[in-house]
Structure formats: structure tokens, C-alpha cells
Automatic annotation (TrEMBL):
Keyword Repeat: yes
Role, per record: PPIases accelerate the folding of proteins during protein synthesis.
Basic and acidic residues: compositionally biased ranges: 534-560
Domain EF-hand, first and last residues per copy: 520-555
UniProt-recorded name of the protein: peptidylprolyl isomerase
Main localization of the protein described in the UniProt heading: endoplasmic reticulum
Compartments in which it is found: Endoplasmic reticulum
Signal peptide interval: 1-24
Amino acid sequence: MAPGSSILTLLLLLLGVLGTPALGNPGPLEDVVIDRYYIPKICLREVQMGDFIRYHYNGTFKDGKKFDSSYDRGATVAGVVGVGRLITGMDRGLQGMCVNERRHLIVPPHLGYGSIGVAGLIPPDATLYFDVVLLDIWNKNDQLQITTLSKPERCNRTVENSDFVRYHYNGTLLDGTPFDSSYSKDSTYDTYVGTGWLIKGMDQGLLGMCAGEKRSIIIPPFLAYGEKGYGTVIPPQASLVFSVLLVDFHNPKDGIFVERLEVPAPCKRRAASGDFVRYHYNGTLMDGTLFDSSYSRNHTYDTYIGKGYIIPGMDQGLQGVCVGERRRVVIPPHLAYGENGAGNKIPGSAVLIFDVHVIDFHNPEDPVEIETVYQPEGCNVTTRDRDFVRYHYNCSLLDGTKLFSSHDYEKPQEVTLGTNKVIEGLNSGLLNMCPGERRVLIIPPHLGHGESGARGVPGSAVLRFEVELVSMEEGDWLGFEVPSNPSHDSVISPLSPLQFSTFIKTQVAEGKGRLMPSSDPEKIIADMFTNQDRNQDGKITSEELKLKTDEDQEKVHEEL
């Protein structure tokens, strides 16, 4: 290239940069210049003709001087795209935008305010520069957008109109700006569905949910707060996004729901009103939150059913249980703790779930239940009160928990029947038995160890005994048996313990009485002395020397 041509080229370039009209000016812009300087990673929807949008903007001239700003007014701009309500350049510049996208727009005069401008604000033939962020987009044909985020495996029931629901939520605008949250209030939002207490979109969005389900619900403005918005937190014509966790729900017409998880076979008897039931339980809310457990206290919950001692739902839920049964009882709040809840662990209007394991139950009118397992042939002589018996036994709770066993010792248990030395139910169960006979006895607590229980025996526990009668000795054993009226007048009175022992042994030697069978006769005689010494002065007179059956006694049960 010739040197002259190089200089000319450089001059033309310089003039073009300086904007000399006669040399290379590109002329006015033909269309909007769009710079998409921020595009969100997720763009679920782009602006199209006819969409309603909300956006913020700053408007400046080429020199940077601001002529308008929605930020300065403290309010977003809302309008419909492509219907002539915006300047043409803005209509075109907003096409295809995503929520939260940011654009620089350069709008030439003929797509802005043209040769007329806006008096006092925008001069004629002004090129306009806009910095825009899109905040919301919707269309009049939009529907509710529901996305299930998580759902429990078991879902026996879903929300219907007229149900009362308890749910947590986070509420944001479409651009992610938060406006409300139940979590910040540390309380669920509680309301009826389909009765007009909620915005239409939420009424619809909660339908079909399971307890424990999480959903994202996007609600267009015409199903939310519309043109008016709500206070200062929800602008007019705002789409709303709710992240919802359904905690629980019920219907005011609900009764309890019982699920039998494990029913032992056989089940000879089922609990009814008036029975006293001992059971373990875990109590949870529908979202699985544990609010109480008898296991944590290592003690059953013991109560009568059908008498109003417990919440109505549990009163109903324990009807018909078998010993050893496991069942789940779902109780609506109107059969539990109602709108007020209980303490700080059971919220108002909460549905409660009890997983129950029935340990035993009885009725205060129950007798001893006797089942003969084996009876030898030729059973002609059977036990009666005052007989001395030897027997083996295994004692357990009805859930199989072992308590005591004579097999843990070297010899069988010994007792004289009818002397209040064993619990009343066991005494009854040992009557009318033959040596060698085996029985199973079910003894209710009022014939056992009562409400207080005993060492190793829970209060109000029903006991199961497996007994085998080893041997028996007939007789009327009360220390010693006197076949005929003893001659008390011949006794030198008063008697010391040694003199009393000599007297008893003499009676036995002369055939005038028999000592109770025992491995320790001296202990028997010492016990007799204590029992006969009415005034506890350490001596026995003729008046005090008489059979214990001659006076009324208070029954005292000894532990096994």
C-alpha cells in the first residue's frame, strides 16, 4: 500500500471516532440494543406478548443523567407486554426476559418518545438507556403451579375441602423476596380449607396433600391478592410462591382411627368399659414429633377405660384390646386436647398418634382364672384350707416377664392354706388340687399385690402362675392342731417363752396336738408364742392361750 493511502485510512478512522458527519457516521440505531448482563441459572419462563410483568428500572441519557427511576418512587412498574401500553423499545427489550434477569437496553428515539419527547423530562430525539430487572411474570390464562418436593411413603388420606389443616410455610415473591414465614413465628398456620379463609390459590394448593408432604405452590395474582396487594409486603399484581409443609389435618366429623399392628392369638378376652388397663405407649404428632412416652419413664400407664379418666379418643381407642396387642390410635383434636393443646409439647388443634402395647387388663370383679393343665388319675383327695402343701410355681406377668420361680431354690414352696401366708388368689388357686396336678392361674391384682405391687411386682399387675402340687398333708394347722378342747386350766400361768416351748412339746408328745410341718420346729413355736402373747408382755396366760381362729384377724399378704 502506498504511504499516501495509509495516511488517508488513518484519517478516516479518526474522523469516524470523532463522529464527523461527513465521514463514516453509522447513523441512528434501527432497533433496541439489548445487553443481557445477568441471566439466572434457572429460567422457568420467558416473557411473551400479552404477559403481565412487574419490573424495576433506572432510565438515563447517554451522558448518564437520570430521567426516571422506579426505585426512587419505591414501587415497581407493572404492565402488559406487547399491547401498546409501553414505549415500543421497552416492549421489544423485555421480550424473552426471565424473572431476576437484568438487562441494559438502548432505545433509539423512534422506539422511544420520538421527535416530541416528554415536556420537561425527555428532550426530542433522545436515545434512552434503561437498566431493567424483571421481578414477576404471569398471564391471565395461568393456573396454579404445584410441585411436590417430598411425600411420605404412607399416605392413607389427603386433604379435602372442609378439613382443618396445620402447616408451616415460607412465602416469597416470584423473585425470591420473602414476605412471611410461619417458622419465624414458631407456630403453624391453622385453618380450614375450602371455606374462604385462605386466598383462593392456597385453598386449591393444599388439596390432595398428605400429612408430612412438602410442596412448592406458585400462585398468580388473580388467585392471591390481585391489584391491591397486601400491606407493604406484597405489591399489587404479585405472584406468590409458598413452600409448604403439611404438619397434620383432620375433619371436625372425624372419629378415631385404629390400626391393629399385632394381635396375639388366641385372644380369649377383650377390654371393655370398666376394665383397668396397663399399657405402654409412644405419643407423637402427625409429623413424627414425640411428645410423650411411658417407656421413657420405665412405667406403664395404668387407668380405667370408659370412665372419663383419659382423653375421649384414648378411651375409645382402648376398647376391645387384647392382652399383648399392639395398635396405633389416631385421635383428632376434638377427641384429644382441642384448640388449646396441652403444655408446650402438644399444640392446639393437633392430631395425636399413639402406638400402644397392652401389657394386661382386668376388671375389679374378676375372680381367679383357673386352667387345669394336668390332673392325675384317681384324684380322690384334694386340698382344702388348713392343709399343709408343698408346690412348685413359676410366676410371671402376662407379657411373659418372669418374676419368681420355686425352681430357683432347692425345695418346693411350703404353706398352710388359709393362713394368709400367700396372696389370696394363689391360695384360691391351690384349693381342690390333687398331688401331681398342674394348673395355670391368672390372678387379678385385687387378689394379688394390689395397686401398690410388691418387690419386683408392678402395681395393679395381673399375675400368671404355673403351679404343680408336689404333696399335701391334711390338717387344721395353726401352729399346732388340738384334736379336742385343751385343758387350759392345767397350764401354770403365766408362761415364759421357755415354759411355753416345753408346754407345746409336751402337748405334741402326749398326742394332744401336732406341730405344723416344717424344717424348723423351734421357729414354729417361737412364732406361736409371739402370736399368742396378746399384750406383748413377754408372757402367756391361760386366757391368751387359745387358737388364733377364735378371734377376728386382719388379713396380711406376704410376698412369695
